[in-house]
Amino acid sequence: MKFSRLVVQILLVVAVVTSFILSFFIWTNTARYQRGRNIDVSTSDVDKNKTPINQIISPTQVIWQDGKEQRLIYNNKDNISVSMQKIIKNWKVGAFSQEFSKDGAKYQKMIQRKNMIQLVYPTNISIRTLGYLMNNTTLQKATDHQFNRILFSVNDKDDDNIYLANDKTYTVYKASVKDASSKPIIKLAKKANIDLKIKLNLMKHGVVTFYTEPVTLKSYSYVLSTKADSEYTTNLFDSNTDDINSSTNGNVYTYNVGESKRLVSDHEKNELTFSDYTDTSVPKDMLSFFQRGYKQATNIQNSVSNLRLYEASWKNKSLVYREYVEGFPIFKKSEFGSIKISFSRNGSTESFLSKVLEVPVPSDMRNATLKPTTEIVKELNNIGYSPSEIQKLEVGYQWTNEEDNSDVIDLEPTYYIKIDDHWRSFESWSNMSAETSSSQNNSSSSSSSTSQSSNYATQSSSSEGE
C-alpha cells in the first residue's frame, strides 16, 4: 500500500514538472506558437470569404414567357437565378440527346416558346461543368456539349423535359426530368421587382435581347477599394520579397522573379498583367478549363461577390470576368472587363484591375430611361453601323469616376454594343461617327481645289489613318 502511494506521488511530481517545462517553452517562444495559429486562421478565413464557383459561373438573366409575352425578371433582394439553380439541382435529369442543330428558324421558335423559363448564361459553359456546379454525377459523366441557355416549361402537364440551347450553333439538347415541380419556380418568378418586356431576336452574330419598351433603371454609386502592388505580389509570387526584382518606367512598375514570373502594373490605367511562364499546361477538357479559371480569378480577387464569368473561348483558352449590378454587366474603361485569363503552352496570363467595387453609397443621380432596342439599332444604322456589323448588344452599366471624389465611382445604365471586336457605349459609337463625318467633310472641303487624282489619294490616306 505504501509502495503504491509512493508511485502515485512520484507520478504527480513528474506531471507538475512536465507542465512547468512546457509552459516555459510556450511563454518564451510565442512567435512560433502564434505563427502556427495564424496560418490556420487565415486559411480558414480565405475559404470562408472565397466566392463559390457556382455563384461566379451562374446565369445572369432569367426570362419568363408567361403565356402572353416574354419578360426579363430580376429580384435585387434575392438572386432568383441562383435560387432556381438550387431547385433544379434536386431534379432527376436523364441523358441529353440532340434535338436539332444549325436551324435558325427552329431555334427562334424554341427560345420564344410559351410558358417557359430560361436561365441564361452570358457565355457558353458545358454539360459536365453544369453537372459539377449542381453536384449531379450523371451530368458529370455525360457527353460534353456547350450551351448557354437552360429552358423548361412552367406548365407541368405541358412538357416534362429540360432543354439546353446554344446561341452560337443554334443547337438544342433535350433530357427527360423526374421529381420536378414548377410551383417553387413560379413562386420565385413572381417575386421579381425588375420586370422588363423583351423579345429574343436572331441577328447575324447570334441572339440579341430586344427591349420592346423604354427601360428605366437605377443609377448607383460605389466606394472603390484599391490594392497596392505588394498585395498582388504576395498572392501571385511564391517567393520571398528578396527574390523579387522591381523596375520603373514612368507610371509602369515591373516585378520579376527570375525569368519565370512577371507582374506589370500600370498606375495610370490601374491595370495589371501577370505572366506565369511556368504554367505551360493547357486545360484538356472544358470542366478543368473553368475550374482553373475560377481558381486563378479568385486568387486575384477572392471576395468579389458580384464577379461573374462573362465570356469564355474554349478555342482560344481564354476567360473574361465582369462585375455585375442588378443582373447587368459593368463595363469599365479596360477592353478586358474586370479579369481576363489566358492559357497557352508558353504560360498563363492574367490581366486585371486594381480597383474593385467595395461598398454602395447613396447616389444623387436620377434613374436613367433607355430607348427600346429597335430604336438603338435604327440609330446605329443611320450613323453607318449596319445590323450585320453588330456582334453583341446589351444593356449594361458604364463606369465613370466622380470629379470631386476619386474614391467613388458612378454606375450609369446605357446600351453597350460590340462592333469590330470592341465594346463601346452607344454614345461612344455615335460620337466616333460624328467625328469621322466631320473629318471627312473637312478633308473634302480642303481638297476641293486640287486635281481629281490627288483628291483620291488624300481621301485614301485619311481613311487608313482613321
Overall morphology: globular
CATH level-3 fold name of the largest domain = TATA-Binding Protein
- Total of DSSP H or I helical runs spanning 4+ residues: 13
Number of domains: 2
Q: Please summarize the sheet with the most strands.
A: 14 strands, mixed
CATH architecture of the largest domain: 2-Layer Sandwich
The Cα radius of gyration reads 29 Å
| CATH class membership of the largest domain | Alpha Beta
CATH superfamily label of the largest domain = YycH protein, domain 2
The overall pLDDT, averaged over residues, is: 84
Structural class, judged by helices and strands? alpha+beta
Biased composition (Low complexity): 436-466
Pfam family, one: YycH
Protein name: Regulatory protein YycH domain-containing protein
Keywords: Membrane, Transmembrane, Transmembrane helix
Summarize the structure.
Keywords: Membrane, Transmembrane, Transmembrane helix. The chain has 466 residues and is of the alpha+beta class. Helix content is 33%, strand content 36%.
Question: Please, could you describe this protein's structure?
Answer:
The chain has helices at 2-28, 30-49, 53-56, 80-88, 104-111, 127-133, 137-140, 183-189, 229-236, 286-300, 373-382, 426-446, 452-465, and strands at 61-65, 70-74, 92-93, 97-100, 116-126, 146-153, 161-166, 171-178, 194-203, 206-211, 215-217, 220-226, 245-249, 252-257, 261-266, 271-276, 307-313, 318-325, 328-331, 339-342, 348-353, 355-361, 368-370, 390-402, 405-419, 422-425. The chain folds into two domains: 53-212, no CATH class; 214-447, TATA-Binding Protein (2-Layer Sandwich), CATH 3.30.310. A hairpin with a 3-residue loop joins strand 14 and strand 15 (261-266). The protein is 33% helix and 36% strand. Helix 4 (80-88) runs antiparallel to helix 8 (183-189). By secondary structure, it is α+β, with helices and mostly antiparallel strands. The protein is built from 13 helices and 26 strands. Strands 12, 13, 14, 15, 16, 17, 18, 19, 20, 21, 22, 24, 25 and 26 form a 14-stranded mixed beta sheet that branches. Strands 1, 2, 3, 4, 5, 6, 7, 8, 9 and 10 form a ten-stranded antiparallel beta sheet that branches. The chain crosses the membrane at residues 6-27. Pfam families: YycH (PF07435). This is Regulatory protein YycH domain-containing protein. InterPro entries: YycH. Residues 436-466 have a biased composition (Low complexity).
